[in-house]
Amino acid sequence: MHKTQPGYRRFSSLIHLMVFFKPYKIRILLAFIVLIISAIATLVLPVAIKLIIDQGYLLQQHELINQYFILLFAIVVVMAIFSATRFYLVMWLGERIVADIRSKLYQHILTMEPAFFETTRTGELLSRLTTDTTLVQSVVGSGISITLRCSFLLAGSLIMLSVTNLQLTGLILIIVPLVILPLIIFGRRIRRLSKKNQNLIAESSAIAGETFNAIQMVQSYLLEDFYSQCFNISVESAFMTARKRLMARALLAAFAIFIVFSAMMAIIWLGAQWVLVGKMTLGELSQFLIYAIMVATNSAALSEVWGDIQRAAGAMERILELLKSQAKIVSPRQALLIPASKLEAIHFKHVFFMYPSRPEQHALHDFSLNIAAGETIALVGPSGAGKSTVFQLLLRFYQIQQGNITLGEVDIAQANIKQLRQACAIVPQETSIFAASVMENIRYGKPEASDDEIRTAAVAAAADEFIHRLPDGYDTFLGEHGIRLSGGQRQRIAIARAILKNAPVLLLDEATSSLDAESEKLVQDALQHLMQNRTTLVIAHRLATVLRADRIVVMNHGKIVAIGTHQQLLEQKGLYARLAALQFGELY
Ligand SMILES: Nc1ncnc2c1ncn2[C@@H]1O[C@H](COP(=O)(O)OP(=O)(O)OP(=O)(O)O)[C@@H](O)[C@H]1O
Ligand SMILES: [Mg+2]
User: Fold this and answer.
1) I want to staple 425 with a disulfide (CB 3.0 to 4.6 A). Which of 123, 357, 501, 578 is the partner?
2) One-letter-per-residue 3-state SS of 433-467
3) Helix H or strand E encompassing 303
C-alpha cells in the first residue's frame, strides 16, 4: 500500500472526483443556481425583519407592516421551494456519482491479473466497493451541498454584516481565523484516523469473507472461537481509532462553539450599549444579530462537515489507489490476430517462469514443447511439478520471465487476450460454480447458447441424468460456490461448460478426478469424442486418460523429464515407470 503524504495531497483525491462529475454538468449548474437563489432568499430575510422593526413598529406604519409581512411570506416560500429542489438535485448527484464510481471500480478490479488477487484479500476489495464508496457518497451528496451553501451564506452574511455595521464586523473578522486554524489542524488528524479506521474495517470484512467461504472447515476444526477473537480484535481496533476520531471532532466542536458563541455575546453586549446611546437602531441591531447568528451557525456547520470531508478524502484516496493500480497483463495496443485456421498449434519455447509471489523458485524451468494441431498431450508428474502452471501460462494469467509461448504461430504476449482465451476451453482443477441455476452455470461456456445446446452439452458430460434428479431440474439454483452439489457433480457441470464452449484448444486439469469409475468412463468417452478435432492438453493421474493421449509429457520440478508414448516411457524405467507403478497399480 502506498504512503499518503499529508498536506498538499489532502484534497487532490477529492479533485479526482471531478472526472465523475463531468457527465452531469447541466444538473450541477442547475443545482448551483438553485443553491444561490435559496441562499439569497435566506440572506434577504434579516433585512425584511429590520424594516419591520424600524419602520413598522417604531414609526407605527401599520400599512407598511402588512406589506412587509407579505414580502416576508414570499421570501419564506422561495426559501422552501428552492431549498427542497437543492436538496433533491444535490443528493441525486451524490447517489448517481457513487453508483458510477462503484461500477467503474468493479469493472476495473475485474481486469486485474490473478497475481493481484494473490496479494489483495477479497474482503478488502468488497469493503472498498461498499463502505468506502458510501463514505464518498456522504460528501458528494450532503457534504458538498452543505459546504457550498454554508460558505455562500457565510460570505453573504459577512458582507451583509459589514454593510450593517463595519465596526462590529471587524470584531467578527478577528474571530474567524481563530475558528479556521484548529479546523485545519484537527482535520488532518481526523483524516488520518479515518483512513486507519476504514483499513481496519476492511480487514474485518476480509476475515469474515474468508471464514464464511470455508464454514465447514472452520466448524470441523473448531476454529469458531479463534476467528471470533481475530474478528473481535480487528473490530475493536477499528472502534479505538473511531473513538480517537470522535474525540478529535468533539474537541473541534467544543472549541468552535466556545469561540463563536463567546464572540457573539461580546457583540450583543457592545450592540446593546450602542442602541442605548443611540449609535444604532433596534432594527439594525436585530438585523446584525441575525447575520451574526448566520455567521456562527454556518461556520459551525462548516466545521462539522469538514470532518466528513476529511473522512471521505481518506476513502477516496483508497478508491483511487485501486483505480490507479494498472493491470499488468493486457492486450498490446496493436494486437496480432491469430489466424483462425491455425488456432490449434501450440509451442512453448524455453519458457522460464516464477510466480510473482515466489520469485526464488522456478515453477517452470526451460520448458519447451511443440504441440501439433489436433494432438492430445497428457501431462503427468508428481504434485507441484508445474502441470497446472502450464495451463495458466497458456491462458496468459501470468507474465513469463523468459522464452515465449505461441498459439497459431503468434506469441500470446502479442495476441489479443480475448481472442486467446476465447480459443481455449478449460476445465480447471478446482471447478467454479456460480450462484445461479444449472442452466446458467453451463451457459457461461457460451452466453448465446440455446437451452437445447445446453442440454446436449450436459448429456455429453454425463450430467443430464443427475440434473434431472435435482429438485427443479435445469432450473435448480446451485447456491454460492455450488455448495449444493457433490464434487463430481460440480466437475461434470464444468465439463459441460467446456463442451459447450466448443473451443479449438481444450485444457483438462484433472477434470475427472472426483468421478466414480462409471461416471468417469462416460465422461471419458464424451471427451474422447470432443478431443477428436481439437488440440487437447490433459493433466491426469489415471492410466485410462493417459493411454488415450498421443504423447505423454512427464514433468518434475518444473522441467520436462521425458516425452513419449506409454510403452516408450515404461521402457525407459524412469519417473514415469515409477509413477505408473504406484498410481496405475495392477492396471499395467
Ligand atoms: N499462485 C501461485 N503462487 C506461487 N506459487 C505457486 C502458485 N501456484 C502454484 N505455485 C507453485 O508452483 C509450483 C507448481 O504448481 P502447479 O500448480 O503447477 O503444480 P501441479 O503440477 O499442477 O500440482 P498438482 O498435481 O498438485 O495440481 C508448486 O511448487 C506451487 O507451490
Ligand atoms: Mg495442478
Assistant:
1) 501
2) CCCCEHHHHHHCCCCCCCHHHHHHHHHHCCCHHHH
3) helix 282-324
Q: What is the DSSP string of 7-57?
A: TTTTTHHHHTTHHHHGGGHHHHHHHHHHHHHHHHHHHHHHHHHHHIIIIII
Domains and CATH numbers, the chain: 108-324 (1.20.1560.10)
How far from the centroid of its chain's Cα atoms is residue 154's Cα?
A: 37
Put the strands of the sheet holding 362-371 in their side by side order. 362-371, 346-354, 402-407, 410-411
Rounded to the nearest angstrom, the distance between the alpha carbon of 388 and the centre of ligand 1 is: 7
Say yes or no to pLDDT of 435 above 70: yes
Residue-wise pLDDT for 125-170, tens only, equals: 888 888 888 888 878 777 878 888 888 888 888 888 888 878 777 8
DSSP 328: S
- Which residue type does 445 have? G
Q: How far apart are CA 507 and CA 16, in angstroms?
A: 43
Question: How do strand 505-509 and strand 362-371 relate by DSSP bridges?
Answer: unpaired
> Which residue owns the Cα nearest ligand 1 atom 1?
355
Q: Band of the pLDDT at 13, cuts 50, 70, 90?
A: low
Q: What angle do CA 445, 449, 455 make, to 5 degrees?
A: 85
Of 118, 351, 387, 545, the residue with max ligand 1 atoms within 8 A of its CB, to mutate for a pocket test, comes to 387
